[in-house]
Specification:
The complex is a heterodimer.
Chain A (H helix, E strand, L loop, with lengths): L9 E11 L4 E12 L4 E5 L6 H9 L6 E6 L2 E2 L7 E4 L11 H12 L5 H10 L15 H13 L5 E5 L7 H18 L2 E5 L3 H7 L2 E5 L4 E8 L8 H6 L1 H18 L2
Parallel strand pairs in A: 2-10, 3-8, 3-9, 6-7, 7-8
Antiparallel strand pairs in A: 1-2, 1-4, 4-5, 9-10
Helix pairs in contact in A: 2-4, 6-8
Chain B lengths: L1 H25 L11 H10 L1 H35 L1 H16 L2 H12 L3 H25 L3 H10 L2 H39 L5 H10 L3 H29 L1 H7 L2 H5 L1
Helix pairs in contact in B: 2-10, 3-4, 3-6, 3-8, 3-9, 3-10, 5-6, 5-8, 6-8, 7-8, 8-9, 8-10, 9-10
The chains are: A alpha/beta, B mainly alpha.
The complex binds adenosine-5'-triphosphate and magnesium ion.
Chain lengths: 259, 259
């Protein structure tokens, strides 16, 4: 399962998703194609209900496309994939486990030996030191998200999927988390697919931003962001490149929101 | 000091009830053959100690045995029902039927079939305690966050690990709620079993006292019977505290008790 250089880490090939049941018949995704290069950071923005979460579920194999194909690290996705890390909007922690043991759940489920040291590294890296033994309800929302992030990174996944991971955080904590995530991405070289509602977040973090149309979702435009690798938060926000990209995305989203 | 804070109110109410009881009996408002005085009841409890102990032990034994069987069978049935739709469809109507049949009405049948020994009493206790265990365990197992289960499937632990590490522990708070109802019902079950045919147990004691119009003994039997139920309930609370500290601390944290 080695990936030759040049092969996309994620390859989404004209995928459509229809949800059919007795009561509803929804087309969540119309025709989406997207390639993500290894080590690339791609954000997905779009109006609520346009199928962003659905797209991540397709990549992880939690959902099967109605038509089209998804490849992950070279293999066609047919069922839940184990070679990814997933972070949901809600931290989804086990409330009877301490922060550290929540992170280690990943290792226990995989039968990974000696994950303790790696867990401690991640705890250090995300600034959770001193809270290893705290239960989820004793942690703040931002800390819970960091635990979820550590858990998703524990097994060093080649692809990290994040679905609005910072949606519930206040602006300042969110900025801190963005800076941290950027650093982690640079240090680990992981391929990241991030769904977000924040334009600033998407521009700050990504190589490319995918703007989607309202439901049924399709790719409206892909914006290349070319920010310097060293990214101080406020300096980056002040860059002309940043504001141009952000304004463009806002315009695209605004246009799609108007009837 | 915590227990003092929690228990002074019920203790006060109990003392008030005893005072009223003492008052109505000593003033002759109610004839002593209808309601004995607290002193008379206490006399019986002390004088007939050995007799009462013996029968209390019999009833407790039946209750605990019935409760344990109901708990084990109930949990297994719930697990089977949650994991197999076929089993659920087959079992659920039967369970419901077994629940709505008045146990008091079938108890005599058990005596006919199984005689005057231990078995029919335990059986009535099982039947009466089984339903809350099944219902609470099914609810508990189904209450698990679907995102958590999706996450587990990306960790590749398989159904057994998912059950042991996520589903089962997540269901325990619900299960304990059901067990606490079940244990008090099991006392009722055992006594009902004794009413329809027995030569020992607190149900037998009460029937005997009733026949002899020995109200002090009748009251003594009632009190001891209630104490057995309370004691078993408290034991379960302690077990819950020990096994689910995360849940209990959450329930009684400073914030939640003030709202
Ligand atoms: N399991 C499902 N069954 C039926 N319909 C579904 C299901 N999951 C999603 N949908 C529908 O698919 C569409 C896209 O949902 P999705 O969750 O992907 O949107 P989203 O872009 O993530 O929205 P948001 O930004 O609000 O999270 C929605 O209209 C939703 O109603
Ligand atoms: Mg979503």
């Amino acid at each position: 399962m080695t990936v030759t250089v040049g092969t996309a880490a994620v390859e989404i090939d004209s995928v459509a998703v229809h949800f059919r049941s007795k009561k509803i018949d929804v087309t969540a995704l119309r025709e989406v194609s997207l390639d993500v290069a290894p080590g690339e950071f791609v954000s997905i923005v779009g109006p609520s209900g346009c199928g962003k979460s659905t797209l991540l579920k397709l990549v992880s194999g939690l959902l099967k496309p109605s038509s089209g194909k998804v490849r992950l690290l070279g293999d066609v996705v047919t069922g839940p994939r184990h070679d990814i890390g997933y972070v949901f909007q809600r931290a989804a922690l086990l409330e009877w486990r301490s922060a550290r043991r929540n992170i280690l759940l990943q290792a226990e489920m995989r039968g990974m030996p000696d994950a303790g040291k790696r867990a401690d590294e991640l705890i250090e890296m995300t600034g959770l030191r001193g809270f290893e033994d705290a239960l989820p309800h004793e942690l703040s929302g931002g800390m819970q998200q960091r635990v979820a992030l550590c858990r998703a990174l524990l097994h060093r996944p080649r692809v990290l999927l994040m679905d609005e991971p910072f949606g519930a955080l206040d602006a300042l904590t969110r900025e801190q988390m963005n800076v941290e995530l950027h650093r982690i991405w640079r240090e680990t070289g992981t391929t990241v697919l991030l769904v977000t509602h924040s334009i600033a977040e998407s521009v700050y973090l990504s190589n490319r931003v995918v703007v989607m149309t309202p439901r049924p979702g399709a790719v409206q435009e892909i914006i290349d962001v070319d920010l310097p690798v060293e990214r101080d938060y406020s300096e980056t926000m002040a860059l002309p490149k940043f504001s141009t990209a952000a304004a463009h995305i806002r315009e695209l989203l605004g246009a799609s929101m108007r009837p | 000091m915590d227990w003092l804070e929690r228990s002074w109110r019920p203790v006060l109410l109990l003392v008030a009830c005893l005072a009223v009881w003492q008052l109505v009996t000593t003033t002759g408002l109610i004839a002593p053959y209808l309601v004995p005085s607290p002193a008379a009841t206490l006399d019986v409890l002390v004088e007939k100690q050995a007799y009462i102990w013996h029968h209390t032990w019999v009833t407790t034994y039946e209750t605990v045995l019935g409760f344990l069987i109901a708990a084990v069978v109930g949990v297994l049935a719930a697990v089977a029902m949650v994991y197999s739709a076929t089993i659920e469809k087959t079992l659920y109507p039967i369970l419901l039927f077994a629940q709505v049949v008045p146990k008091i009405a079938i108890a005599p049948l058990f005596v006919v079939w199984l005689g005057f020994g231990l078995v029919p009493k335990v059986l009535v206790a099982v039947l009466i305690a089984f339903f809350p265990v099944v219902i609470s365990m099914v609810t508990g197992l189904k209450s698990v966050d679907t995102e958590m289960l999706e996450l587990a499937s990306t960790m590749g632990g398989g159904p057994l690990k998912t059950f042991v590490k996520i589903r089962f522990p997540a269901s325990l708070p619900h299960l304990f709620a059901g067990l606490k109802v079940a244990v008090t019902l099991a006392v009722t079950g055992a006594v009902v079993g004794e009413f329809v045919g027995a030569n020992e147990g607190l149900g037998f004691v009460i029937l005997q006292a009733n026949g002899n119009i020995d109200t002090p003994m009748l009251f003594a039997g009632l009190i001891v019977m209630s104490l057995v139920g309370v004691l078993l309930f408290v034991l379960l609370e302690l077990a819950e505290r020990f096994m689910l500290p995360w849940h209990v601390s959450r329930r009684t944290s400073a914030v939640t008790t003030t709202i």
